[in-house]
User: Fold this.
Amino acid sequence: MSVKEYCIGVDVGGTTVKMGLFNRGGDLLDKWEIVTRTENGGEAILPDIAASIKEKLAVHQVTPQEVCGIGIGVPGPMNAEGTVPHTANLGWGRKEVTRELTELTGIPARGGNDANVAALGEMWKGGAEGYRNVIMLTLGTGVGGGIIIDGKILVGSHGAGGEVGHTYADETVSGHCGCGNKGCLEQVASATGLVKLAKEELERSADDSLLRQEPVTAKAVFDAVKAGDQLAIRVAERFGDYLGKAIATFTAVLDPEVIVIGGGVSKAGPILLEYIQKHYLRHCYKATRGVQFVLATLGNDAGIYGCARTVLD
Amino acid sequence: MSVKEYCIGVDVGGTTVKMGLFNRGGDLLDKWEIVTRTENGGEAILPDIAASIKEKLAVHQVTPQEVCGIGIGVPGPMNAEGTVPHTANLGWGRKEVTRELTELTGIPARGGNDANVAALGEMWKGGAEGYRNVIMLTLGTGVGGGIIIDGKILVGSHGAGGEVGHTYADETVSGHCGCGNKGCLEQVASATGLVKLAKEELERSADDSLLRQEPVTAKAVFDAVKAGDQLAIRVAERFGDYLGKAIATFTAVLDPEVIVIGGGVSKAGPILLEYIQKHYLRHCYKATRGVQFVLATLGNDAGIYGCARTVLD
Assistant:
């Protein structure tokens, strides 16, 4: 019997599918992308992935028998059986994703929600390497999340575990969240939310600010903070307070070892963690004061790392 | 080899130790109590428990070899190895609880935090029977919690998993929480918190109310609600809003199947669930709308049931 030396991670997004070939030790041996064809209910997506994997394995002279599994991440809930109820971005209705991918490739497939597998990736080879109890927050257009308990993804009973962006933060915030609710963490702690907080402060205050000189982006806010801009600092304090409070609630519930912050906003670097942690310490339960705060390090590759890692248990 | 037909649950409180002898099917065959002797650093507690168990087994003509294990719950954090860092109510400093109890009895022991094992008890034979993903909130003097993921207690990395009473609820609340923080859920959603909310409303409003005629207790508030008392109903709405919002956050993170409400306040009955669920539905993430709300049914026996259940895996 051949040694199952390899594993494959497949991170399915609405525009591209990222894929990676790994050895069991977690070395990324090759990385490639294909276009996500969402037309006709996304019927070509899984066959395209299977064909691309076969092709790539041939290039590397790896047989399917040497691959212990394929992990696939999708932008939406997936239950423990690898079935999705509906994945709007991909055109899919109910689909038995892992069963179909296994049939198409002859290689056992597992899967998960993309934010959850990204957290697993950061635990395997990223900012949370060496830990077993992790909360990851991805601060991008929205706020995504993934929770790892004792080395395993918290999937939840509907595949909706770790939806930290849709926890309650502040009912007084203007507008509604994409989920339909009002006051979600995502509305105030995403890149979009940060821009909104900055615009509110620019309107409320007459103070001079670097933020009056250019389009307001998440990057511009933290660049201004680094330059000592007082208005931007007030915005960062409010942003940090929302996140610090929310994370204090998550740690009282989950008691993890480490918080990983990823997504576009995390490009601000360690100063972002300072603003979050300062407010975290004001609100956290005392047994959880020592939780570590780290930045994600795998960027857009977290998904393929995490997907590959799901097949190694 | 004898069949290991029995298990024992030991729920250690600051005043009494409750114990129960169960068969593997979860029938409670006998239940008894001893006094908790907390003097001298609580050194007598585990020997007293061991002696009482031996005596009781002799009465039932059960040999230690027929007992698959003893589960012990304590009022404080206990890590996965069965060690407590410090349990103030019992006089204990750091103590290897399960190792010592195993040595004293010759029967394998496991353990956990009392609120966590109570949740496991309710899953085994109480309000959450048949479910595998459970959040339990115990609304008593404080707010305790226990979380079950896929049939197992979420212990956390410091044994502080499920400390839902110390999640953030409202910074504007008067006074501080017993944990030292300000604005904890426990301050507004415990029996004590409910009384505080009622007293605030009695002061703020000039309305007539049944609550002006007797000492304000959690029971009096919900009795008045049942009698149609408008002031009490406003208090119940605010109480339900705090809990509904908090539980919406917990379910977005954990995606459980069922919420179990226990503790003294839960004696109000189904009307309590109505006030919580109404506000829950205003705030919850859509994938978690269908979560069930049930009352705890085991009362003070939840601990011994849950402790006994810990040794059956």
About this structure: Chain A touches chain B at residues 77, 132-133, 145, 147, 149, 154-164, 166-168, 179-181, 183, 245, 248-250, 252-257, 283-288 (CB under 8 Å). Chain A has a mean pLDDT of 95.
